[in-house]
Fold this sequence. Notes:
Elements: E1 6-11, E2 20-25, E3 33-43, H1 45-51, E4 68-75, E5 87-90, E6 93-95, H2 101-104, E7 116-117, E8 129-133, E9 138-139, H3 146-149, H4 155-165, E10 173-177, H5 181-193, E11 196-201, H6 207-213, E12 217-220, H7 224-228, E13 234-239, H8 247-252, E14 254-262, H9 274-280, E15 283-286, H10 292-305, E16 311-315, H11 319-328, E17 334-338
Parallel strand pairs: 10-11, 10-13, 11-12, 13-14, 14-15, 16-17
Antiparallel strand pairs: 1-2, 3-4, 3-8, 3-17, 4-5, 5-9, 6-7
Helix pairs in contact: 4-5
Amino acid sequence: MSQKNTxxxxxxxxxxxxLVPYEFDAGDLQxxxxxxxxxxxxxxxxxxxxxxxxxxxxxYPVVAGHExxxxxxxxxxxxxxxxxxxxxxxxxxxxxxxxxxxxxAGDQVMCNGGSKATIVDHAGGFAEKVRADWQWAIPLPDDLxxxxxxPLLCGxxxxxxxxxxxQIQSVHHVGVIGIGGLGHMAIKLLKAWGCEITAFTSSLDxxxxxxxxxxxxVVNSRDSAALKNQYGKFDLLLSTVNVSLDWKxxxxxxxxxxxxxxxxxxxxxxQVPVGTLIxxxxxxxxxxxxxxxxxxxxxxxxxxxxxxxxIELFPMSQINEAIERLHSGQVRxxxxxxxxxx
Length: 342
């Protein structure tokens, strides 16, 4: 018989609605799950997209929040390598099947046998407690500040995983297009990786901040003349924007064998001249987040190099004010919510 397990949260009851206090019965903890008491949870643009059903996949009520830091308060019988009281992080993915070809290969983020996002038909981290498959509860190194570590689990892994996939080394020149939540983490990670970094932004007033973060060069992302001056330079371009740009010119900024890697969800089709790809052996790729192994590697690297996202902290009880702050476009550079249910 299921034991009542009431969880307090903040939920959207319909698309576009303000979040309201909400309680639900989580039922029994499943053997493969852990239950985590939420301490902090980042606020991401993807949370807002799911709250508003922008992608057509939301199931209401929606309890969003997928950049979660907390401590384990429940362990299922099949959970391995974790302990009660241990601090962990949970990102975009809450569950994967662990038996499809992708999971067996260690590419669980591509799971096609029952993967479940933390905030789609699943209660996320805008709550006092959250549940996830034990393999997606990533141990937090002691040297990482739990207050600012949450955004690494979504935005951080999104920009870190391409460095692994494309075998980026310190000798490479990498450009980052769009310097917001994802872009500023990319600069910090690339600086610690040892790369030469060019930041592309339409807000040149950010230049002093970007140089301080580690950018070697700052270029206006919409200036055609400035883009021409970059032709042939980049081994990798990470695009974090969700708007269309002059992609033909950006492809020309790639060195031979270079790649434009898409991370922001640009809704309009890209205009890609095939001759440019063939002539320079160039490519256009994309990726979502990353596997549990990549997440563990990222957190260890961030702890070793003292990398922390730049955040603005709100109590979770002010979640609607935090969302309005995000909508303002003035956040520097990620909002984090501190759980205050007690």
